């Protein structure tokens, strides 16, 4: 799906393209991304640039491994933010990106068990 916020083929490479395993990993990533976004929002509220940069680094890596390229790119920018105003702008953009990933993954159908 070209407009999807996450490329499940990237996760599929890790699972040997086992659809059920890929979906499980995608759901795990979505949960991790939501939790990290909450931490990012708390760091934003505290105006803590260092924490924002560290959290951007953390989410960047898992987003890249999951195939969430836009999210990973935003997190790279957050990690490298030169100042708080730049970081805060990225946090504003990151929220909808994580929401789009979460919504996309939530809409995926479970794979029927093999008979």
User: Based on helices, strands and strand pairing, what is the structural class?
Assistant: mainly alpha
Compute the average pLDDT: 93
How large, in whole angstroms, is the Cα Rg? 15 Å
Low-pLDDT residue intervals, each spanning 5 or more residues: none
* Sheet of most strands: none
Helix and strand run: HHHHH
Strand content: under 5%
Broad shape? elongated
User: What is the terminal-to-terminal distance?
Assistant: 28 Å
SS elements, strand count: 0
Give an account of the 3D structure.
It is a single chain. This protein has helices at 8-15, 19-45, 49-66, 69-79, 84-106. The protein is an all-alpha fold and 115 residues long. It starts with 7 loop residues before the first helix and ends in a 9-residue tail after the last helix.
List the helices and strands and how they pair.
Blueprint (H helix, E strand, L loop, with lengths): L7 H8 L3 H27 L3 H18 L2 H11 L4 H23 L9
Helix pairs in contact: 1-2, 2-3, 2-5, 3-4, 4-5
């Amino acid at each position: 799906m070209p407009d999807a916020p996450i490329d499940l083929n990237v996760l599929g490479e890790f699972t040997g393209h086992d659809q059920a395993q890929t979906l499980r990993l995608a759901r795990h990533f979505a949960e991790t991304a939501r939790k990290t976004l909450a931490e990012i929002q708390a760091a934003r509220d505290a105006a803590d640039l260092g924490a924002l940069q560290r959290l951007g680094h953390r989410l960047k890596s898992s987003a890249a491994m999951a195939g969430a390229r836009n999210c990973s790119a935003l997190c790279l920018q957050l990690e490298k933010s030169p100042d708080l105003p730049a970081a805060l702008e990225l946090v504003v953009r990151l929220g909808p990106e994580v929401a789009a990933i979460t919504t996309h993954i939530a809409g995926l159908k479970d794979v029927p068990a093999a008979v």
